[in-house]
Amino acid sequence: MIEPLVRAPAAAVDLLVRGAHVLDPRTGLDGLHDVLVREGEIAEVGAPGSLEAPAGTEVVDGAGRHLFPAFVDPHVHLRVPGQEHKEDFETGTRAAAAGGYCAVVAMPNTSPIVDSAPGLRSLRDAAARDARIPVGFMPAITRGLMGQELTEMAELREQGALGFTDDGRPVVSAGMLRKALQYQRLCGGVIALHEEDPSLSGAGAMHEGTVSALLGVAGIPSISESTMIARDCAIAGYEGARVHMQHLSAHESVTAIRAAKAEGVQVSCEASPHHLLLTHEAVRTLDTRMKMNPPLRTEEDRQALIAGLLDGTIDCIATDHAPHARDEKEVPFEQAPMGTTGLETAFAAVYTGLVQPGVLPLALVVEKLTSGGGLLGLPVPRIERGAPANLVLVDLAAAWEAGAEGWASRSANNCFTGRTLSGRVLLTVAAGSVAYRERAFALTPA
Amino acid sequence: MDHLLSIEDLDRAAIERICDRAASFSEVADREIKKVPALRGRTVLNLFYESSTRTRSSFELAAKRLSADVVNFAASGSSVEKGESLKDTILTLGAHKPDAIVIRTPWAGSAELVSRWTPAAIVNAGDGKHEHPTQALLDVHTLRSRLGALDGKRIWIVGDVLHSRVARSNILAFQKMGAHVTVAGPPTLIPRGIEALGCDVRFDLRDLPEADVVYALRMQHERMDQAWVPSLREYAAVYQVNGKRLQPHQVLMHPGPVNRGVELSGEVVDSPQAVITAQVEAGVVVRMAVLYEVLAGNRAKDRTPITAAGAPA
Question: Where are the domains of chain A?
Fold first, then answer.
């Protein structure tokens, strides 16, 4: 199999980060250290002030700052091909790097759908020209996301498919999903599922509950998601297959996954920053930035997602970064497309909303923001000698207003716009190359 | 008041002010020349994205009785069908310098959205299944004329609450006026969570005799396609307000148009308890009062012109 991640050529960096608080829950680092990167690889981790910068190495003052393994997002929409007015590889990976990400995984619901090997190859070629950080691809489970015929999964895997998903739509037919899971024995690759029963979600545009009752907007009941998760966990268990549940939103879904995991089903799942931080109360004003699928649900659901992160039921935080052009979102709520951008705000929003108030430990958040790729079979970023440099340097104390300085993404439909967030990404190193530097943050030559 | 976007925005005092002004306008309809010059030289634009005869003509008549100029803009056969967005339509129509835009759309929140894109006063004539504030105001006005104050009155709203903007506005308006509201209808057509609005929920009409006012909603034939109820026959058997169910002391209301033999039996429509025609009459004077309120009443502030680049906040 070929390397599943692709990016544009970039120079390997030589860098010394001095005296930052290094936090990597996997290697156990949690204190002040120097980290030396040579030719894109972590060459040394030492006591603060102990490492010397070889000639030509850039030196970063890490004092008062935090250095984490860079984040990996298993669920983003980069809109290539066909919807480049919303986002493209250049802008999408710029946004990702600005948010501290060193790799992202792109969904296939583009125009046309990514469901053939030639389509995947051309995308990889484009990413090899335009992507600032490594991008992986999840082609469709079924042709055209129509739920009728499997894609040529074996060939797609040979061409670098990380796994498969019909994201944006559920695999409605249990029989169809079962065939895909059986076929997984041949070709491997995680099957990632957008869970929603269309006979329950119907024309719904927001969570079904007290707010939708007040607004007269058709609701999407939480059982639309949880019943499909329970069904598909049962099918996966029966077939011994490996599935990943995307963007959990409902407390019943957390319960279903917790039960499936206890039964030994090979299931992992993700939650998004917006579902962890917002509820359907945010939809009261019918702000179209608050319209996403699955919808923002209740405080009880939000608390269940947080509990799921804490007890390990939820494996990772994924943004479901879904850019839409301004004129597409500047319409009545019911007409607006679903989705919020999230790459540039994920860490700061979760840090501000959940770490600062003491709800989640910082180390857990770093773990959940870095684990998404590993669930799909990618190496997990680590801060240790010999590892490729995937690093993010953050000033936790720096407050900024989301969106006030514009966005790196081509789109501005971010649900945290206008909020004051703490935690500013200063520098992102992805696969050994500098992918992002905060404007005001200059490096000093040694 | 700059706009009339929802009943949710109004307090009891505002509702009473509008109804009082409507009462003062009601003698205009009895004059030989049914016109006052209050809004002479003002332009009112009726922008309707859904077919409507009575609401649109009621607004048109109200504006004309106040001597305003009226332009009707229906979405069918217009630029809207050619794919123009709501925002572009509003910006384009803005070139006609309307002082007020009366808007009905199938989308919740559209009146509020439009109010950010134009300096004109916006009157919500129905936004999706969200609100229909002038209907609620005319219903309050009708009841005040009939009953005096609404305080302590028990009002039952019967029928398809799920798909009804009239129900949502009326629940809020009747409660703000001190009434106690119960909604009743098939469980499939009562939205989950509606009790959060402060109303009681019933799924049959056993306790209907407790009501002082029975407000029947229109049961739309198109609901049959999606199996919301098994049949109109069964619906009528359980939920029709008829001579057996309606008590002599009760006032009967309906927003129109009535499906005789479905939500209401013919006998109750024609009974003296029904105030359906009075509601239609109240429609014109209440809409006169609303247009007067947003165009000539106290304005909170000068309208700031919004450019094409102005994004919603």
Answer: 15-67+387-445, 70-375
Please state, in angstroms and rounded to a whole number, the distance separating the CA atoms of residues A272 and A75. Answer: 9
Nearest CA distance, B192 vs chain A (angstrom)? 6
Q: Name the residues of A annotated as catalytic.
A: 320
- Fold assignment, A15-67+387-445: Urease, subunit C; domain 1 (2.30.40)
> What CATH class does A70-375 carry?
alpha beta
Prediction pTM value: 0.94
Please, what's the b/e burial string for A96-130 (b: 16 or more CB within 10 A of its CB; e: otherwise)?
bbbbbbbbbbbbbbbeebbbbbebbeebbebbeeb
ipTM score: 0.92
- Residues A70/A392, Cβ–Cβ less than 8 Å: yes
Chain B residues in contact with A209 by the CB 8 A cut-off are 192-193
pLDDT tens per residue across span B284-308: 999 999 999 999 976 544 444 444 4
List pLDDT tens digits, range A190-213: 999 999 999 999 999 999 999 999
Interface test with chain A among B192, B194, B199, B226, by most A beta carbons within 10 Å: B192
- Distance between CA A134 and CA A129 in Å, rounded? 11
What residue ranges define each of the domains in chain B, with the CATH number in brackets? 12-131+283-295 (3.40.50.1370), 133-279 (3.40.50.1370)
Q: Do residues A321 and A77 touch, judged by C-beta distance below 8 A?
A: yes
Contact A217 B108 (CB under 8 A): yes
The residue written with tokens 């006591």 in the block is A47
